[in-house]
Amino acid sequence: MTPVQTRNLIDGEWKTAPSGATLNVTNPATDELIAEVPDAGAEQARAAIAAARAALPAWRALPAGERAEPLARLASLMQDKHEELATLLTREQGKPLAEARGEISYAASFITWAAEEAKRVYGETVPSSRPDQRILVLRQPVGVVAAITPWNFPSAMITRKLGPALAAGCTMIVKPAEQTPLSAFAIGELALEAGIPAGVLNVISGDAATIAQTIFADPTVRKVSFTGSTEVGQKLMVQAAQNVVRLSLELGGHAPFIVFDDADLDAAVTGAIKSKFRNAGQTCVCPNRFFVQAGVYDEFVAKLAAALEPMRVGAGLDEGVAIGPLIDDAAVAKVRDHIDDARSHGATLRLGGEIFSPGPGLTQRFCRPTIVEGVDASMKLSHEETFGPVAPIRRFTHEAEAIELANDSPYGLASYFYTRDAARLWRVAEALEYGIVGANDGAPSTAQAPFGGVKMSGFGREGGRYAMHEYLDVKYVSIGLSKPI
């Protein structure tokens, strides 16, 4: 699969934008130009929709097992090309190569799981209240669907939508983030190699607003799955109204991470590093607010600082790097603003806070792992998603206080807490107003389980059998029985 495609995949063919316009894909660690990709507009978006519409009847008519076979081959090919895909991902996105390798395996797992779930889409019979009636409930594919995906997990955010959509019998248009389209094209290449028919999967890069408007304006598209910011998600809800398009939205988060006095502190530190500092803190489920009970506050902060201090910051392809670059200059500006705002309101830096270039030829987009103490509700860190390797820590006294602080947010995607009290584990897990709860677990996401949020973090679920429901319509069939002749 080398070199990777740099053109749009439409109806099984690789195409440039009709205007010839292109977008630059650069390495955020070095600003190296990696590729030029099409800057598609409405014309190619309409072509991709038409291709998906034309491919739909034959694809949804296939028995589930026959749809599962090419999906299973796609997952296998992703594992076969594991190192190439991971290297490509790191080059365009920046995360350390070890994390990129993990993402490719994670991404393939969603395809594998969905291929199996294709065979388990069951209907129902329902007891009737009339002797001359039989009630059937059928589950059928929604139809043509679209996925709009972010830059922070450019492979996994595609496959956990693509897998269940195709397994259910839908056809799809994928619009990847402008910063990271190459991973999407690589998945498109492997999909064709796996035998997924032309038009079933289409991948187009270009202006997000134009493509989204075109998708929502076409009544052919019956479902859109979006991962991104709450602000963009709100705009998409408005656009979806015109054709009453079904939505799944995985939006912003502001995850709390609670450490109780009875916690295993070493496990809590390990979980904090996994959840907060993966991808340089650029994940929607990473903790943005740490609440540590007074009895262990000093010890936890000291252990966390000791674990973070030696972590190497640098280009993702360099050996031993644990923290890669922020994605772009806007991300750098936001992290710097949040740190400066906290300090101006009286917070102190226990560790880090520096944004710098770690070596010759590298950009000024790197931030050292940072611990901020003395955080209170007046600071941006307490209310806004930072998307950087910054851990704001606040002391609390009682369990009820921790729950109140944790739930004091319009967001409800992920949450975490550490305790060795079995009763507290149940109480807190049930009290947290979040779609995902990591109880003594800093990395709860897996292909088998439902992933998604509540409140302003969106709705819909990805993963497990729940993901299939997002791409299936429920049809009620009432059968009237005539009298015997």
TrEMBL record:
Question: Could you tell me the superkingdom of the organism this chain comes from?
Answer: Bacteria
Q: Name one GO molecular function term.
A: succinate-semialdehyde dehydrogenase (NAD+) activity
| Gene Ontology biological process | gamma-aminobutyric acid catabolic process
Kindly give the PROSITE patterns that the UniProt entry links to this protein. ALDEHYDE_DEHYDR_CYS (PS00070)
Q: Which InterPro entries match?
A: Ald_DH/histidinol_DH, Ald_DH_C, Ald_DH_CS_CYS, Ald_DH_N, Aldehyde_DH_dom, Aldehyde_DH_Superfamily, Succ_semiAld_DH
Q: Please state the Enzyme Commission number of this protein.
A: 1.2.1.79
Family in the record: Belongs to the aldehyde dehydrogenase family.
Return the protein name. Answer: Succinate-semialdehyde dehydrogenase [NADP(+)] GabD
Could you tell me the gene encoding this protein? gabD_2
